[in-house]
């Protein structure tokens, strides 16, 4: 995605050339409408969870090792048999045309150019076929997999046509969001706003009843959900997004999920949930494997989402058990790749990152202890 060209077309001027994610956020906030920025940036209730996602990284400190040959740092990784240049991909984000340009088309072009994985939101403002066409027409950096994020509706049959379309278009995995039993719609932000503004239960129930069977299901179960998706799309990987406990991680393995995403929905659902970084180590401990397969760390891939703002954050997530990390678009990917490579070199790591490189600040005292 040629971001500067896109900004010239829209008549907007970028105040700075961002070199960190905080600067990217500052630029974005200055360029898009306040109500759109609030929609993307807000969390639930008092917005405790989004802040906790970021704060959890600050408690962790990197313990660098020295006198190691770091002349060749390798950021490549393999996921589902496909090699990627970096261990992170593009997370699903709703209604991207609200942010400007061609929305999901711009993001898909960036993914294809950089050779990174992309997950398309089911709340996309672009057809899934048009998004896939960006990958097919690209002569960029490799052959990244595109995945389709999905909410199952109260009437599961309403979701079947979308799943079939995604499979036919070439999407290789369904990323089922499982942390939204309090449903929101895939239509427009105003519905979310109405639901959040409801003062009493009756008002909320009225809003939900107006949407009928198209709202998110609150009756998904382990015994029925994955078998249903296998039946509808037998050739696609099934990834569960929104796993926050080791018990559910084990259940995901036992019920045949292909991967999980440790995610609290960016803090937009349960405001008092733990941060994703706090949840990650125990999930990794429950799924850790001694498999001889190169690079395999967990029984199924553990993908991480939430609070990542620097390449050092990516380093920490990988060190504590993540196999892959989800993040933003081209400028963000380039920044994270540069910062991750630099962090690895300074920490004395060339390839495999483990928790031996991470310490935690002592609570109520001074110093850092190994995990």
Can you describe what's shown?
This protein is an alpha/beta fold and 371 residues long. The chain has one domain: Alpha-Beta Barrel (TIM Barrel), CATH 3.20.20. Helices cover 40% and strands 13% of the residues. It is built from 14 helices and 13 strands. The strands form three sheets. The chain has an eight-stranded parallel beta sheet. A three-stranded antiparallel beta sheet has the order 1-12-13. Strands 2-3 form a two-stranded antiparallel ribbon. The N terminus is likely disordered.
Order of helices and strands: HHHHEEEEHEHEHEHHHEHEHEHEHEE
Q: What's the CATH first level?
A: Alpha Beta
Shape from CA axes? globular
Oligomer: single chain
From the N-terminal CA to the C-terminal CA, the straight-line distance is 40 Å
Overall structural class, as computed from helix and strand content, comes to alpha/beta
CATH architecture: Alpha-Beta Barrel
Number of domains: 1
Which strand-content bin applies to the residues?
A: 5-15%
Work out the number of β strands: 13
Q: Count of helical segments?
A: 14
Unreliable segments of 5+ consecutive residues: 1-15, 183-190, 195-199
Q: Could you tell me the CATH topology label.
A: TIM Barrel
**Residues in helices, as a percent range:** 25-40%
């Amino acid at each position: 995605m040629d971001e500067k060209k896109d900004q010239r077309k829209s008549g907007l001027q970028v105040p700075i050339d961002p070199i960190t994610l905080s600067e990217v956020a500052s630029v974005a906030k200055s360029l898009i409408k306040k109500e759109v920025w609030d929609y993307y940036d807000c969390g639930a209730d008092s917005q405790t969870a989004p802040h906790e996602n970021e704060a959890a990284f600050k408690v962790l400190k990197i313990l660098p090792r020295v006198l190691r040959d770091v002349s060749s740092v390798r950021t490549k990784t393999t996921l589902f048999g496909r090699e990627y240049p970096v261990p992170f991909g593009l997370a699903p984000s709703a209604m991207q045309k609200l942010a400007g340009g061609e929305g999901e088309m711009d993001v898909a072009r960036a993914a294809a150019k950089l050779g990174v994985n992309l997950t398309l939101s089911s709340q996309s403002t672009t057809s899934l076929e048009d998004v896939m066409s960006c990958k097919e027409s690209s002569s960029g950096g490799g052959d990244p997999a595109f995945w389709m994020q999905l909410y199952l509706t109260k009437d599961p049959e309403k979701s079947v046509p979308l799943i079939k379309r995604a499979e036919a278009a070439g999407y290789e995995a369904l990323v089922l969001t499982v942390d939204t039993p309090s449903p929101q719609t895939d239509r427009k932000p105003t519905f979310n706003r109405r639901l959040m503004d409801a003062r009493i239960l009756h008002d909320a129930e009225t809003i939900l009843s107006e949407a009928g069977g198209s709202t998110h299901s609150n009756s998904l179960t382990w015994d029925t959900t994955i078998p249903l998706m296998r039946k509808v799309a037998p050739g696609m990987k099934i990834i569960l997004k929104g796993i926050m406990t080791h018990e559910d991680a084990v259940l995901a393995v036992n019920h045949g999920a292909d991967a999980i995403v440790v995610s609290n929905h960016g803090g937009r659902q349960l405001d008092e949930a733990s941060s994703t970084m706090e949840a990650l180590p125990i999930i990794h401990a429950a799924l850790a494997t001694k498999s001889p397969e190169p690079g395999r760390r967990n029984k199924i891939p553990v993908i991480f989402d939430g609070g990542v703002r620097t390449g050092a954050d990516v380093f920490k997530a990988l060190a504590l058990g993540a196999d892959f990390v989800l993040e933003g678009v081209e400028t963000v990917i380039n920044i994270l790749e540069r910062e991750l490579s630099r962090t690895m070199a300074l920490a004395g790591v060339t390839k495999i990152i483990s928790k031996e490189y991470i310490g935690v600040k002592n609570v109520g005292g001074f110093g850092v202890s190994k995990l």
